[in-house]
Design brief:
Blueprint (H helix, E strand, L loop, with lengths): L5 E5 L8 H10 L4 E6 L4 H8 L3 E4 L12 H23 L3 E4 L5 H10 L4 E5 L6 H7 L4 E4 L12 E3 L14 H7 L9 E5 L6 H14 L4 E5 L18 E4 L4 H10 L2 E4 L3 H9 L4 E3 L6 H11 L4 E2 L7 H12 L2 H12 L6 H15 L1
Parallel strand pairs: 1-2, 1-4, 2-3, 4-5, 5-6, 6-7, 8-9, 8-11, 9-10, 11-12, 12-13
Length: 362
């Protein structure tokens, strides 16, 4: 039996940079061998190992665009990570490297360029982050979720949309999910509140302040993130229609999304893509003064979600907006149809692009 060609996937820092890479693995694991390269202790390590995907760790530094003594240490870490990457790539001999961001991938992409190994960088957000800017210098192609992002990368850019669940093949045991998440006797609309991969202190506080009234009109599953993000004094909230989870595995999250009547979320692109593909009526609360605000603007321009400004938001307004959507079928249908139009499914284009580059290397 001939040995399969190897594809390296790399990223980390948040789950949002990992889930699109996993979609590539799902699409192509029967045709290629895969190795994921991440950090020694990042969030991505646990996610990847649960998938049964081979994992290797390298050192990771981060360049801060402000004065910090940590930059001196991290320059040294990046230098060491480059040499780690070089030796690892010489051993593995991959055909291509694909990253969706994260500083761990930067020295890897530079080492790949030195060895003549092609790389693809996928830009999810509207605005490029520093890691992707650095990798774009050596990448063969930069794929982007939004056509507006092409201007940052010139002739290397290709608009494909984003990578996410293939709804034609998405299946789950509905009765099992209903039982697992206490939804068997669901008579009220289901709301999912997601604070992102590490949680959101603001959303946790807002949810706690709004619960009593919201639970009169809905069932809520609240994914709060780590206990560091939790609000002291609300640990023991216990309502019949409320389920709080620190974390949830990704297949179960997708299943719950598909069942939800409304989702409240931050504006990480991986989650936004899933909401778009699932046609979910959504309230978005972007992290202030961050790239998430630009992501939210893309949805606001297309009237595809209700966007709320964290700096001006209180529990009364939050409750009002939720009730407005739940009680207005016309608005729910409009949001559902519009959100589906925001992000193109790029799964097919990405897999074709990968195969094209690998075949041209042979």
């Amino acid at each position: 039996m001939n040995k399969k060609d190897t594809i390296i996937l790399s990223g980390g820092g948040t789950g949002g940079s990992v889930t699109p890479l996993l979609q590539i693995y799902y699409e192509l694991h029967n045709e290629f061998d895969f190795l994921f390269i991440g950090t020694y202790s990042g969030l991505e390590k646990g996610i990847i190992k649960k998938e049964g995907l081979a994992y290797s760790a390298i050192l990771s530094g981060k360049w801060r665009r402000y004065f910090s003594l940590k930059n001196l240490v991290d320059i040294f870490l990046i230098f060491l990570a480059f040499w780690q990457s070089l030796f690892l790539l010489l051993k593995i001999k991959p055909k291509i490297i694909i990253s969706v961001g994260g500083f761990v991938a930067v020295p890897l992409s530079w080492a790949a360029w030195v060895l003549g190994i092609p790389s693809i960088v996928h830009q999810q957000d509207v605005l490029p982050g520093l890691a992707n800017k650095l990798m774009s210098k050596t990448a063969k192609i930069i794929t982007v979720t939004f056509p507006e992002a092409k201007k940052y990368y010139g002739s290397k850019a290709r608009w494909i949309g984003n990578l996410g669940p293939d709804l034609n093949n998405f299946k789950f045991n509905k009765n099992e999910i209903l039982d697992k998440y206490q939804l068997n006797n669901l008579r009220l609309p289901l709301i999912i509140i997601i604070g992102g991969g590490t949680g959101s202190s603001f959303l946790n506080k807002l949810t706690a302040e709004s619960l009593e009234e919201l639970l009169l009109v809905s069932k809520i599953i609240h994914i709060s993130g780590s206990t560091e993000r939790d609000i002291k004094g609300n640990e023991d909230i216990d309502y019949e229609n409320y389920l709080k989870l620190e974390f949830i595995n990704h297949p179960d999250l997708l299943a719950l999304m598909s069942l939800a009547d409304l989702v409240v979320s931050r504006c990480g692109l991986a989650t936004l893509t899933e909401l778009s593909f699932f046609k979910k009526p959504t309230i978005l609360i972007p992290m202030p003064d961050s790239h998430q605000e630009y992501n939210a603007q893309e949805f606001e321009k297309k009237e595809a979600a209700i966007i709320l400004d964290q700096k001006k938001l209180n529990s009364d307004d939050f409750i009002k907006e939720i009730k407005l959507i739940l009680n207005n079928d016309e608005l729910k249908n409009k949001l559902s149809q519009n959100i589906f139009q925001v992000i193109k499914n790029g799964n097919h284009e990405m897999t074709n692009l990968i195969k094209e580059i690998i075949n041209n290397k042979k």
